[in-house]
């Protein structure tokens, strides 16, 4: 079985092709929009997605040496994400499904970040640390759904470091040689400054931390020291919540996923925490950390095998589609996929 998946929820147009036989991912082609200034402008990003979608689709098929006729189903991320961007991917997917007579499979973007990590780790029932531009959540499978065991009550971890980088004059670009500019700057930090560490029960709050860090920069503190203090505080907060989630859920595996999982420092903190509880640890490989089409195609394949399809004429985008609203029929109680 072959499923083609389309990702266009925010800044990335990605097309992946998944197979139910090894190596499971046959191609994963993506292009990312990087705003020249400010944060993501949904209209600009959607234009970038529209301009690049066809080439990305053609290249994904070519890399797998397949034609669209070989594909069994089309999967698409219908949410959560930015409306104008989601609409491009949804339109392309509807077109392919109708034009070539293929079933259409709706995929939740957050579930896809988790499922690609399940594939690469071989884990059956992990505690998931999902950290990205739109999300910061501790998630575990329970009674048919991925449930949230802690999350940010305001901005996400990715948003925190991106906004800080922008406001402090470090970005764009945000990523240099695969490293986030705040982390690169932090590597020259020498002093830990006291910043608000805001963990409330199982939730974290990052907006006060952002304001305080920016104030420190304005008050003349060394930028490298503020960067170091910011990431140390922010990463420790989410790892603390993950640690409690692990104790509470008694899971034996920890999976780190989402764009910010590409951070070596966050990886080392999460790994140390997992190992101190004798849990196995896995970080999603870099190529699947940020948004990509492979994760949509793989999750689409799991869903399609369990009969999840949608009439193309009813396929609407869902900008606020929460991870815990999605039925996961391909996992049984132990989290094992079938
Ligand atoms: P969501 O999954 O919430 O919809 P998203 O679609 O915005 O998120 P992702 O590609 O999953 O996007 O994550 C993007 C985030 O990952 C950005 O905040 C970016 O700065 C961050 N990121 C990317 N590479 C790195 C890195 N090497 N270190 C730290 N953060 C990184
Ligand atoms: Fe994402």
List the SSEs and their pairings.
Blueprint lengths: L1 E6 L4 E8 L5 E8 L9 H22 L9 E7 L3 H18 L3 E5 H13 L5 E5 L4 E7 L2 E7 L5 H11 L7 E2 L2 E2 H6 L12 E2 L2 E2 L2 H12 L4 H27 L3 E5 L6 H13 L3 E4 L9 H13 L33
Parallel strand pairs: 1-4, 4-5, 6-13, 13-14
Antiparallel strand pairs: 1-2, 2-3, 6-7, 7-8, 9-10, 11-12
Helix pairs in contact: 1-2, 3-9, 4-6, 6-7, 7-8
The site of fe (ii) ion has 6 residues, from α3.
Structure description:
By secondary structure, the chain is α/β, with parallel strands linked by helices. It folds into 2 domains: 2-109 and 290-325, Nucleotidyltransferase, domain 5, CATH 3.30.420; 114-287, ATPase, nucleotide binding domain (Nucleotidyltransferase, domain 5), CATH 3.30.420.40. The chain has helices at residues 42-63, 83-100, 109-121, 157-167, 181-186, 207-218, 223-249, 264-276, 293-305; strands at 2-7, 12-19, 25-32, 73-79, 104-108, 127-131, 136-142, 145-151, 175-176, 179-180, 199-200, 203-204, 253-257, 280-283. It has a 5-stranded mixed β-sheet, sandwiched between helices. Strands 8-7-6-13-14 form a 5-stranded mixed β-sheet, with helices on both faces. α1 runs parallel beside α2 (83-100). The protein is globular, with a radius of gyration of 20 Å. The structure holds adenosine-5'-triphosphate and fe (ii) ion. Adenosine-5'-triphosphate is lined by residues 9-10, 81, 109, 113, 132-135, 158, 162, 174-175, 178-180, 258-260, 262-263, 290-291. Adenosine-5'-triphosphate (ATP) binds next to α3, α4 and β10.
